[in-house]
Amino acid sequence: MKNALSMYWKYCFLLLSLLIAAEAVSQNQPSDKKPEIKELNEVLVNGNSIEQRKKEESLNVETVNNSFIQRNLGGSLMQSLQKLPGVKTISIGSGGSKPLIRGLSFNQVIVVENGLKHEGQQWGADHGLEIDQYAVNRVEIIKGPSSFIYGSDAVGGAVNIKPLPLPSQNTFGGSVDLTGKSNNAQFGSSVNLFGRNENWFFDSRITTMDYGDYRVPTDVVHVYSYAVPLYKNHLRNTAGRELDFHLSSGYSGEHFKSVFYFSNVHTKSGFFANAHGLEPRNVDLELHDKSSRDILMPYQQVNHLKVSNTTSFQLGNHAFETQIGFQNNFRREYSHYVNHGYMPPIYPEDMYAPQDLERQYNKDVWSFSAKDEFRIQNHQITVGSNVAFQQNEIGGWSFLIPAFTQFNAGLFAYDKIELNEKWFLNGAVRYDYGKIKMKSYYDWFQSPVSENNQTELEYLQRSQDLTKTFDSFTWSIGANYNPGKLSLKANLGSSFRMPIAKELASNGVNYHYFRFEKGNPNLDAERSYQLDLGMEWNQQNWSFQLTPFVNYFPNFIYLNPTSAHDIYYGAGNQVFEYEQSKVFRYGAEFQTRYYFLKSLSAEIGAEYLYSEQKSGSKKGYTLPFSPPPSVLLGLNYEPQITFLKESYFSVDYRFTAQQNNIVPPEKKTAESHVFNLAFGSKIKTGKQDISLNIQIQNLFNTRYLNHTSFYRLIELPEAGRNIIVSMKIPFLFSR
């Protein structure tokens, strides 16, 4: 630790000296100041609107734009956002991940895209988000309970992907994005076209990606007790493909706007061959190592389709908005048939599912929402409702979760009161109702059952017909005080989450984790109470932000490892059961930035989280996948260079502390030290500017473990050095 910090500060001191000298030289060079002044004015306007919202909202909200995403481009949207304190990912290889906000993930955090709640397969351990990050313009990260806004599942926070801004009137244009990554030899491109006359517009995008097996800084990993050699440091069969299409079109007038959104995201990606199923020794190494770009079994195919319409109109003092949406998530997992337990050794020819189709999930979701926003004196009031119905079907020869249908409905009211320029009060109430109906399921093969000293063969029942209903009131109150350069906020609220089908009725082997998962039909709705505080200071050359929180769950739902082992579906699998316990959590995020010069700044971002179970069989333990404390130190240089705009050079060092506070069978994770470099600029080319960004992630090819990674349990280190080059070429024609 001391050696790494010493090296970092020496490097920063040397870099600081060089940059100060370069700044002094650049200030003596003649240049045209007018274009730069205009650009700075635009940045100030955008920044002020974001800052104004933070001063009026009592929830902790972080907002980033597509420029931030491009500068920090990762393998998925959430990997591109994890530079923000309090935001982490549960990564699944190089092309998939899901959000982890303040240690909460899965169905405790929701993602909203263009106003529509993203409904995948409830983000199992191996399920990433089907989101095209090239189609993302602006993202809001809400830390803390957001149930009064979004309803069930927003216990831990929300990732709100805002709609694209409408094209300017009488324009036609677009852009071409090109990306290359060295670690997994990825090639990606995204083409955007948009146009608009006075009122009618369209915006379209096609994205394609192709990547190979990614590399790690080790030549052997241990899948539990079995040593697996890696050919040229590649994780065999982690290659993938992606093809996405987006289209939005509609009408925008002075008091009326209606937009139709259509998107289809299709991915195909392999699972690390030696860590899937119960036979890691039986992988055909010669076949898998023949090419680093082929996708062999085991692999997954996911297609996510979304269609929606958002209409808004003004009537007097009222602003109405309605949204109708449909989405389909179709996921298939393919693997060689291997009989476990009492499954027949030879796959039957008359089976309803193909021999290689291990699992299939097909989810349809229909939704409708409406809201009305109006002012009464100094009150800005919003009332609204939402309704959603989903139908989930299953397939394949392996069973984990039953088919089910689900209905949700909610009503809410929100009031923001502006007492004066310095004081804002916020209050909200919401009522939610939900009903889930699960279907029975029997094994397609017989198993011996012994009773009264007699053994008979039976088709075992894995799930029963089960109907559960849940309802809840949630509330939130908050205050903001803005005396000047200082901004203070506080918010106290409750939130609610319905148990999902996996938690209520799962009953099978999760081959990705080598364990048997068993649901609990007696689970209650999960509830949470949280106090959020915020303090922010802004002046000309220095700013900081501190956001502590305290969180209590009277009945947190978690997957608990037991001492039992299953006997029917591959003897030796440890049984994990869903249970509930009281949980107490607290933590904080801290950010600060200091400008040495107009173009030279340093930043620090830190986060800390503590959680403890206060009841149940794991009383005294933390929660699974609890992220350890971490600190990000960064140095940023943004010089003014002739013929270039928004040039930058940055170096950052992330120290992640060891994580010894674990829940067995989790393993302790050692501390890590990772350096990253990034630089880029916009090249002036007439009316449009070409953006070029280069990153070097994991600069020193450090071998380290990520405690929240999907593959952490098999001691798999994070990806090695990765050079990422991205270019954006815009074009625009005005009529």
UniProtKB/TrEMBL annotation:
It is found in: Cell outer membrane. It is a multi-pass membrane protein. InterPro entries: Beta-barrel_TonB (IPR000531), Beta-barrel_TonB_sf (IPR036942), Plug_dom (IPR012910), Plug_dom_sf (IPR037066), TonB-dep_rcpt-like (IPR039426). The keyword Secreted does not apply. Keywords: Cell outer membrane, Membrane, Receptor, Signal, TonB box, Transmembrane, Transmembrane beta strand, Transport. Residues 54-158 form the TonB-dependent receptor plug domain. Residues 400-699 form the TonB-dependent receptor-like beta-barrel domain. Residues 1-26 form the signal peptide. Coiled coil: none annotated. Pfam families: Plug (PF07715), TonB_dep_Rec_b-barrel (PF00593). Its main location: membrane. This is TonB-dependent receptor. It comes from Flavobacterium chungangensis.
